[in-house]
Amino acid sequence: VIDVTSLGWDTRVKGFIACFAIGYLCSLLGSCLLWVPKKGLVLFAVFYTLGNIACIGSTLFLMGPMKQLKRMFEPTRLIATIVMLSCLILTLCSAFWWHNAGLALLFCIFQFFALAWYSISFIPFARDAVTKCLSVCLS
């Protein structure tokens, strides 16, 4: 990961695509495992979370680790980052230590929305557009 900043642009894009594809496949596998009797919900939570971690990690190839961390903790993204990382951790805790499938599913739902809110923060004016759209839909 430290050497990623010295990689060429082609290698960075390939690393991004590979890591993102692995993340997507983990999330897809988790969705398929949701229907496994008894342990399905826990397997879903684990693979879905690992998939999201891999997808977030894929952006390290494009920006580099230090720039990614700096941008994650900018004031405009700080709350979204904290909520997203908390949901990732709480999902794994509920699956492995607390053995509570309902909590794992709830944290996966929170994880989805937190990651979406975090992701759109990189698109100029996207949060404003989503907020306005939701306010129109709810009123």
From TrEMBL:
How does the record say this protein sits in the membrane?
A: Multi-pass membrane protein
Annotated GO biological processes are: protein transport; vesicle-mediated transport
- Regions that span the bilayer: 16-36, 42-66, 78-98, 104-125
**Which key words tag this protein in UniProt?**
Membrane, Protein transport, Transmembrane, Transmembrane helix, Transport
Provide one Gene Ontology cellular component: endomembrane system
Q: Which domain of life is it from?
A: Eukaryota
Q: Which Pfam families match?
A: Got1
Q: List localization entries.
A: Membrane
Record's PANTHER family? Answer: VESICLE TRANSPORT PROTEIN SFT2B (PTHR23137:SF1), VESICLE TRANSPORT PROTEIN-RELATED (PTHR23137)
Family under the similarity heading: Belongs to the SFT2 family.
What exactly does this protein do? May be involved in fusion of retrograde transport vesicles derived from an endocytic compartment with the Golgi complex.
Q: Could you tell me what this protein is called?
A: Vesicle transport protein
Give the originating organism.
Mesitornis unicolor (brown roatelo)
Q: What is the lineage of its organism?
A: Eukaryota, Metazoa, Chordata, Craniata, Vertebrata
